[in-house]
Design brief:
Chain lengths: 117, 110
């Protein structure tokens, strides 16, 4: 596709359940980012992949959160034992390889709205 | 703690006037700055990026950067009702992650 895609668009789950959120970046983009955004706030950085490896996971709030990108394209954000405070919109972005400032721009997917009841 | 600050607004501007949005950042070493627009219920959409001190113009939009004072602004000329949205300022961190302000809600009144 032409842009970043994310599935599902909405996810409602119960406290304590496990969820997976998927991101499909723009074709050819090697950098992939996960952010989450709570109502009335700017996005908050979670994790950054360059290729298959997590280059920076310092934004993951705790060990219930984990993300993978096994083939350097699609990424999955995994949340174990969900809590009500995890409710937010989870945004994925991708950008071309680092190396030129014009390639620093991050393009965002439509987001997944996660609601934990 | 690296921070990006924006006035949350709302900022109300008459149609056809200039809307001025401001942002300050704490990390003096920051090099890349971005303005995104976000409509309610949608994801952020890139408006402009700026790397060098001074002004950068793109259509009705002008980004201004002053690294000495650590602020970046966005001017929107000939404001239209469709410009009504939340405008997010973002600064690129050392690992290419974006550090975001909370956004300024802009309302263009017809």
């Amino acid at each position: 596709g032409a842009g970043v895609s994310q599935t599902p668009s909405n996810k409602v789950t119960e406290k304590g359940k496990y969820v997976e959120l998927r991101c499909d970046p723009i074709s050819g983009h090697t950098a992939l980012y996960w952010y989450r955004q709570s109502l009335g706030q700017g996005p908050e950085f979670l994790i950054y992949f360059q290729g298959t490896g997590a280059a920076d996971d310092s934004g993951l709030p705790n060990d219930r959160f984990f993300a993978v990108r096994p083939e350097g394209s699609v990424s999955t954000l995994k949340i174990q034992r969900t809590e009500r405070g995890d409710s937010a919109v989870y945004l994925c972005a991708s950008s071309a390889p680092a190396g030129g400032r014009s390639t620093d721009t991050q393009y965002f997917g439509p987001g997944t709205r996660l609601t934990v009841l | 703690q690296k921070e990006v600050e924006q006035n949350s607004g709302p900022l109300s501007v008459p149609e056809g006037a200039i809307a001025s949005l401001n942002c300050t950042y704490s990390d003096r070493g920051s090099q890349s700055f971005f303005w995104y627009r976000q409509y309610s219920g949608k994801s952020p959409e890139l408006i402009m990026f700026i790397y060098s001190n001074g002004d950068k113009e793109d259509g009705r939009f002008t980004a201004q950067l002053n690294k000495a004072s650590q602020y970046v602004s966005l001017l929107i000329r000939d404001s239209q009702p469709s410009d009504s949205a939340t405008y997010l300022c973002a600064v690129m961190g050392s690992n290419y992650q974006l550090i975001w302000g909370a956004g300024t809600k802009l309302i263009i009144k017809p």
